[in-house]
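Record pair follows.
FIRST:
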Amino acid sequence: MEHNKVDTEPQDSYDDQQKWVLDSSTDSRGEIPLRAQTGAWRAALFIIGIEFSERLSYFGISTNLVVYLTTILHQDLKMAVKNTNYWSGVTTLMPLLGGFVADAYLGRYGTVLLATTIYLMGLILLTLSWFIPGLKACHEDMCVEPRKAHEIAFFIAIYLISIGTGGHKPSLESFGADQFEDGHPEERKMKMSYFNWWNAGLCAGILTAVTVIVYIEDRIGWGVASIILTIVMATSFFIFRIGKPFYRYRAPSGSPLTPMLQVFVAAIAKRNLPCPSDSSLLHELTNEEYTKGRLLSSSKNLKFLDKAAVIEDRNENTKAEKQSPWRLATVTKVEEVKLLINMIPIWFFTLAFGVCATQSSTLFIKQAIIMDRHITGTNFIVPPASLFSLIALSIIITVTIYEKLLVPLLRRATGNERGISILQRIGIGMVFSLFAMIIAALIEKKRLDYAKEHHMNKTMTLSAIWLAPQFLVLGVADAFTLVGLQEYFYDQVPDSMRSLGIAFYLSVLGAASFVNNLLITVSDHLAEEISGKGWFGKDLNSSRLDRFYWMLAALTAANICCFVIVAMRYTYKTVQPSLAVVADCGDDVETATGTNNTSKLT
């Protein structure tokens, strides 16, 4: 059924806004949702619940993947790190396809259902690879080389999980954010908190994965861990389905690529026409006519694209609305294209942060493997991947302090509903990632020196507690930048592309994994050409990770300078007012004047 906005008299608009959700969403029956019965935290909690189990499964596999590849599949360090980065890269780039399908065809709820089913298929195959005799890694407890059948089944299983993650991640997070209406002041504030608490739930899943699940993998068995992950995922999927009556739904809007192409074609066709200085002379629908989202105000950047909304002949009897969309676009469609173009430099200059973030699940874990992980006074040995829990704890603590302490103080100081702008938050996290790489370089040099001093006694290794600072500081960086990127890409994309927006955020990490592989290959080759010895040997003691970390620190520092320049010139989305003043505020709460907001990242 087509969802139309409620026609209201001015005196009734406030009451209707409190009773009904007027943002083009529907309830489970396809009708306009009642605010008191749908959405907000009553719905978001179901969604955060299944995200907990998905992150439990993903990090239960990813954080111990290097260990699995080196101990079970007997790959060397460089090959294991590359395979981990390839899988991580594919997993975080697949959401681009999943987000497109969700926004254009299946809808976010439908995509979550399909993706979770594929995810479960991967977990089931992973479990079977440990219990079906023909798929087991080895016939005996000790073996030099795993069976090919197990290797094939394992990689098929984890790449099925990649496909499932591709649909699950962008659709679920944006579906959760859809439960809060931007046009309602209270729910808009809830949405700003949603991304913080989403990440707190996410980190709870990570924390459980890298402590309980990783311990089970190392001490009891990978097969037992796979059974647990499958059961937890299936149970949370069932609970997610129970929440169906409480959700608010957005209908898929068709391919977002077609309207973008129409804007470019119309602008090129009218390239010789003058563009009016008064944006009110450009073609736009009224709030009553536009029922598929929110109208955007015209901005002053990329003025060439405004020609797509220029009405060629105002004396014609034919109404502008009846002209071909390939010849005449609305201001909103033009602004949506501008938003996507403006995101390109932001996306590019966050890749360096993504490269730093990938170290936590690859090289950081490999460092932990060869360090002393005994707990003083006991025989208990901490699994290497469990050190990743320090990042999860750091994120939870930082997000809680930021949400409960810093945001209220910053709101009063800046007058910004968010406390600081989204890009300021991202930039702060980048600075912490720089500190994390510097700390990692210093600690690795200390570990290498310690190993040389005690090379005669192989049992003498540096305590893994020395790795704690780099994990904790990188967790603070994630709390600022990763959460900021989620909010930025969801908030600033066109309303019809919000699943793709989350996919754009994830693609930063996916592309960064491939960039990381490239940096490893190039730096290792150059080091070998210059000094005769590469930075990556067969083991860590014959490698020079400290120099690699210093290189990442230098690249991050240069990248931060470029990011600041781009962020200071960035223009945030401005939404036209309808029943209430609606704004996607980047710096300040926008008013009904339609003035564009420019980032003040200082």
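SECOND:
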Amino acid sequence: MYPSRRRLSLSRAIDQQPEDQSGVQEKSCRFLGAMRITEILALFMVLVPVSLVIVAMFGYDQGNGFVQASRFITMEPNVTSSSDDSSLVQRDQEQKDMSLLGGLLVSGFKKESCLSRYQSYLYRKASPYKPSLHLLSKLRAYEELHKRCGPGTRQYTNAERLLKQKQTGEMESQGCKYVVWMSFSGLGNRIISIASVFLYAMLTDRVLLVEGGEQFADLFCEPFLDTTWLLPKDFTLASQFSGFGQNSAHCHGDMLKRKLINESSVSSLSHLYLHLAHDYNEHDKMFFCEEDQNLLKNVPWLIMRTNNFFAPSLFLISSFEEELGMMFPEKGTVFHHLGRYLFHPSNQVWGLITRYYQAYLAKADERIGLQIRVFDEKSGVSPRVTKQIISCVQNENLLPRLSKGEEQYKQPSEEELKLKSVLVTSLTTGYFEILKTMYWENPTVTRDVIGIHQPSHEGHQQTEKLMHNRKAWAEMYLLSLTDKLVISAWSTFGYVAQGLGGLRAWILYKQENQTNPNPPCGRAMSPDPCFHAPPYYDCKAKKGTDTGNVVPHVRHCEDISWGLKLVDNF
């Protein structure tokens, strides 16, 4: 039972053996031990040199120091090795397919120039929405067009010369036509409006160029290979942009109003200004009519100011309807696909995103996004909004209720312990502090541990400040990486996060007359943004109509009753 006693018994047994017998055994053991040591040394001296020769012949790769599996397969075919190699190739292909978002993106970019393009899939769940083959084909065709006609090419130079000609008459742009997006509004509006203009560019075989300068390049990577989508600083009309408006000489809507535009007159125009912002009038809205699209297709340069996601109304133009149906069989995924294709955070912004994610979100069992934007509150925290937020997240089982009984003193087991990280984005810290204190001071009925985190609190929107926009873009992207998302009504900031993530968010309804809405929030019909200012006009009948009741996949928005949204047929 005790080691000392066992050792004592063993020594006594040895002492009791006859002296001569123990001597013979001792000599025999010494002789056998010596032989074993000699044999081991000899075997070692033979095996070591042989092993080194084998390694030298087959095992060393000068490129990376490791042997390649294919070499062994070549020397001596082996079913197991070949199978393993096929599995490895398949895994590499699957990983490449994931990084390129199922063919949405193309390879060839320098990885160090845009880390997010090749790393974003590591932080996001695979999208349940797959891009159609027709959409992929259209994107590849557009990329070729942009490369052929983009800035720096002979075609671009010739097309820009048309803007400098004083005389009227027939003009030829060598097959390259352009639509220029003018920088306008806040970052969320800019992102969703650019996606709309890009969709229009693909439908009309135009090249999209964006105004934005160095700040734009600081926020986003170039989306197109071996070319740029940035409008050159010395663009001929750039100095006139500030003067473009609804009463400008080349404004499409004003020319319609004055009956100055028709099939004959449009052929002499080098450019037109399109005013598609939230304050556009009934003449500007004729852009969404078939007849006007037939006129616009002959104008080499279209200069567009918009802060809207106007894609839903493009689906109501008969000449685009079939093409859009093939591009987007799942109608409510337009921004989800185009947003992930176009908008890749720059390395500076990607650093903000990944550092925060690793520090506060990576280890969570579940990540909840909570985007809070209150438009009509002058300052401070609204008790009504606070109540609405808490009611929404608890009623929808996004966050657990607080425990008040004896259960709060019971410690959960390791298997029961679940960490939920809540990412709050808001211009102020008030709502974050309330939630953080609430879930720190009280346990939950589910025994989940709730972590509340807020990256920044800028106080108010500062559209023209670079660091403000960096943080805003980083927070939109972080929200899109969450598992479940709550956004505020009317907010394009939340629309971007929802769309990039392919999430059907819960929308906090806007409060009217200082009363809490009931229910406090509702589920989005699709990940796509809402078109806040759609036209209500039947172009064929030339009279007003409810454009949210024309086709089943264009409906009124959940948060804005007069808005339009793309949804899948139910």
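COMMENT: The CA atoms of residues 58 and 64 lie 14 Å apart.
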